Amino acid sequence: MVKPALSVVIPAYNEEAVIRQTTEEVARYLTESAITYELLIVDDGSTDHTVALVRELMQRHPSLRLLQANHEGKGAAVKAGVLAAAGSRILFMDADHSTHIQEWKKCIPWLHDGYDVVIGSRKMPGADVKVHQPLLRELMGKVFTRLTNTLLTTQVTDITCGFKCFQADVAVRIFRLQRIAGWGFDAELLFLARRMGYRIKEVPVVWMDDASTKVRLMSDAIRSFNELMRIRIGAWRGWYPLHVQSQVRE
Questions:
Q1: What are phi and psi of 155, to 5 degrees?
Q2: Which residues contact 194 (CB under 8 A, 6 or more apart)?
Q3: What kind and span of H or E run contains 169?
Q4: Strands 117-121 and 164-167
Q5: What is the pTM of this model?
Q6: Which of 9, 35, 46, 59 matches a 20 to 30 Å C-alpha distance to 25?
Q7: Cα–Cα distances in angstroms (integers) from residue 197 to residues 104, 130, 143, 168, in the given order
Q8: What is the crossing angle of helices 185-195 and 74-84, to 10°?
Q9: Structural domain range at position 102
């Protein structure tokens, strides 16, 4: 089997309304881009028809793979997909396609330039938010980003944008250390990347809010803030490595 240039990981939990369209659009774009790829959909214990739809799509898309897991959270699903990926670069993105796969082209030059992690940002100059989140959700996102940058010294403009790309060897080192299974996993990944000495680049993306989001504002916000404290306390307790990892490509 030829090693694909790119693995795209999409976590999915009860995404029957959007998974077909997203999968078709991602597959079409990457095929037309003449890039070798695999598309991994990681089902996080869905109770709707998500799995059945993905199995149907697999009949038409040989590069599509399905991973199934118990319902543990988005972070756990992304971790499972990344650690199962075979590509030279690994991108994870949201099932609702809020950041379109075509934004991947903005990551390519920075990866070629040697950056280890390239992440999408909705909050830096050049970003284009077509449909905004409700005001309270947007405010909570800004507060979460500020707290993360303060507590974890991540130093980025957008923690939670679900469009992040990694050199594969870097991804494996980071995700093997990931402990957060819920929404706070983005903060942990960026904390680990900074702590391990990897080069991070933010790129402005086009983004559109999905009104059917499964985020439960107050409960998920409280859980995410608790996860931030777990990361900070875990660092004090020695959960995470202190030394810069080798950045030699495998």
A1: 60, 45
A2: 152, 153, 154, 155, 200
A3: helix 168-177
A4: antiparallel
A5: 0.92
A6: 46
A7: 23, 34, 25, 16
A8: 50
A9: 6-236
Is 249 a residue whose pLDDT tops 50? no
CATH code of the domain in which 149 resides: 3.90.550.10
Give the residue-averaged pLDDT of 81-89: 98
Give the list of residues 6+ apart from residue 179 with CB closer than 8 angstroms, or none. Answer: 188, 230, 231, 234, 239
Question: Considering Cα of 216, then 217, then 221, then 224, what sign does the dihedral take?
Answer: positive
Tell whether 116 is covered by a domain: yes
Chain-centroid distance of CA 250 in Å reads 22
Q: Tell me if 120 sits within 8 A of 226, measured CB to CB.
A: no
**Beta strands of the chain (E only): which ranges?**
6-12, 37-44, 64-69, 89-92, 117-121, 128-131, 164-167, 200-204, 206-208
Asked if residue 225 is part of any domain, the answer here is: yes
pLDDT in tens, 149-192: 999 989 999 999 999 999 999 999 999 999 999 989 999 999 99
pLDDT band (50, 70, 90) for residue 235: very high
| Average pLDDT score over the chain | 92
Instruction: Output helix, strand, coil percentages for the chain, rounded to the nearest 5.
Output: 40, 20, 40
Q: Residue 198 and residue 181: Cα distance in Å, rounded?
A: 22
Amino acid letter, residue 243: H
Helix axes 135-152, 185-195, angle to 10 degrees: 30
User: Number of folded domains in the chain?
Assistant: 1
CA end-to-end span of the chain: 17
Q: And the tokens for 20?
A: 């077909």
